[in-house]
TrEMBL record:
InterPro entries: Glycosyltransferase_grp1. This is Glycosyl transferase group 1. Gene3D superfamilies: Glycogen Phosphorylase B. PANTHER family: SULFOQUINOVOSYL TRANSFERASE SQD2. It holds the Pfam family Glyco_trans_1_4. The keyword Plastid does not apply. The keyword Transferase applies. The lineage of its organism: Bacteria, Pseudomonadati, Pseudomonadota, Alphaproteobacteria, Rhodospirillales. It comes from Paramagnetospirillum magnetotacticum MS-1. Signal peptide: none annotated.
Length: 438
């Protein structure tokens, strides 16, 4: 990028920046760190939600701005129950609009298509001519379906009215389709759409030319997540897990969106058949008490862990389990692979292409506890095979995953540069046309 004009990009992440935030927020925190190493080509401002307006300078060319929401989803918790993350449902964010219209930016990057930041960016881009690029980080349509179903049952129960709304009228699926339509409209207004999976490529290509649809990978800090940190004596001393016990690691929110119920029941069944398997849940959420009650001494739930402890736990476990069926790209799966862990994922979760079944992990064909128990028992009951799989992961996968610097330089910067150059060419053509007419 040397010798080219500096890009000034506003990245819009309509979620709270907080400890324990999910993969969407963490992705942009890591990209911001990578941007610090591109001072000659990039100025990056990441907008996030927060209690008050605040600007944090991360470096000479990178900053994070938090803005208070106009209408936070916190206001709806009585209706929906606890939500894993909070966003802004307003169709317009005046403070953000002023920030984006200051003339500082030559590129707007939205990271969803549904909430206040992205909808405001659409209108600012249309008014100013700033190019708009979108990337997908959260399976919002599927999550909408799930939370709609939960909310209906919470209000109406599981009787005739609940069945009418969820089954006969199929309201959750209708809400999902509404979100998919909104995503298509947003992408159609963008210069480029960045996606992560084959089905996202197909959908985006229905509203944009195929060459306008690009892949966005997720990166890793290989200095943090590494097989060399494996130390079972440390895990035993720190958390009281016997060194002879196989450990299945889950990292993430302990809530219904992660489909934990069949995994927990599978662990109970496996241990009931005499195969020792300990579940380690690194994360918090409303299902924590139920998991502890169900598995007792066969589970450890320490809550959120700091990065150093978490990276050591990754390396010390024997396999990573990800039962979620609603994922775009799971940072957790990539961190597990980078740590040398075989991974067990749901076939419906969108992460199966990272797994070579029988070599670097397994793909569970359905979400039943029986099927999960079958897979986990075969792995935990054969420690020698697990060790071979760890070696295969370390040899074939962990070092092949890109760094966050690679993702920024190879996936994002070329798209941002192209969008800006195209917008400038259009603006120049319009000026020339106006001059000729005059």
């Amino acid at each position: 990028m040397s010798g080219l004009p500096i890009l000034s990009v506003a990245a819009l992440v309509d979620l709270e920046q907080r400890q324990g935030a999910g993969g969407h927020v963490k992705c942009w925190e890591r990209l911001a760190e990578a941007a610090l190493r591109q001072p000659e080509s990039l100025e990056l401002t990441v907008f996030m939600s927060g209690e008050a307006e605040r600007t944090t300078e991360l470096g000479a060319n990178v900053r994070c701005v938090t803005l208070p929401p106009v209408f936070s989803t916190r206001r709806l918790q009585a209706l929906t129950g606890p939500l894993p993350d909070h966003t802004d449902l307003s169709p317009w964010h005046p403070l953000l609009a002023r920030r984006l219209s200051e003339g500082r930016f030559n590129m707007l990057h939205t990271t969803d298509a549904f909430f206040a930041f992205s909808r405001t960016a659409e209108r600012v881009a249309a008014r100013t001519g700033l190019p708009l690029v979108n990337s997908i980080h959260t399976a919002t349509p599927e999550l909408t379906r799930l939370f709609a179903e939960q909310s209906i049952h919470k209000i109406c129960g599981h009787g005739w009215l609940g069945r009418l709304l969820t089954q006969d009228l199929d309201l959750p699926e209708r809400f999902k389709r509404t979100k998919l339509a909104r995503l298509a409209r947003h992408q159609s207004r963008c210069a480029y759409a960045l996606v992560s999976k084959a089905d996202e490529v197909r959908l985006a290509s229905e509203v944009l030319p195929p060459d306008r649809v690009r892949m966005l990978r997720r990166g890793l800090n290989h200095n943090v997540f590494a097989p060399e940190k494996r130390d079972r004596a440390w895990l035993s001393a720190r958390f009281g897990i016997p060194e002879t016990m196989s450990v299945a690691l889950f990292v993430g929110r302990l809530d219904p969106s992660k489909n934990l119920a069949p995994l927990v029941e599978a662990i109970r069944q496996v241990n009931g058949r005499g195969v020792g398997l300990h579940l380690f849940c690194a994360g918090d959420g409303r299902e924590k008490a139920a998991i502890l009650g169900r598995l007792g001494s066969s589970v450890t739930c320490p809550g959120q862990l700091g990065e150093e402890d978490l990276s050591r736990v990754y390396a010390c476990a024997d396999l990573l389990v990800m039962p979620s069926e609603i994922e775009v790209v799971s940072n957790v799966v990539l961190e597990g692979l980078a740590s040398g862990l075989p991974v067990v994922v749901s076939a419906a979760g969108g992460m199966s292409h990272y797994v070579q079944p029988g070599l670097t992990g397994e793909v569970v064909g359905d979400s039943s506890a029986r099927k999960w128990a079958e897979v986990l028992e075969a792995l935990a009951g054969n420690p020698g095979h697990l060790a071979e799989m760890r070696q295969a992961v370390t040899s074939s996968t962990s070092h092949a995953l890109p760094s966050w610097d690679q993702v920024l330089v190879e996936d994002l910067l070329p798209v941002w540069r192209a969008a800006v150059e195209e917008a400038e060419a259009v603006a120049m053509g319009q000026k020339l046309e106006a001059a000729c007419r005059s």
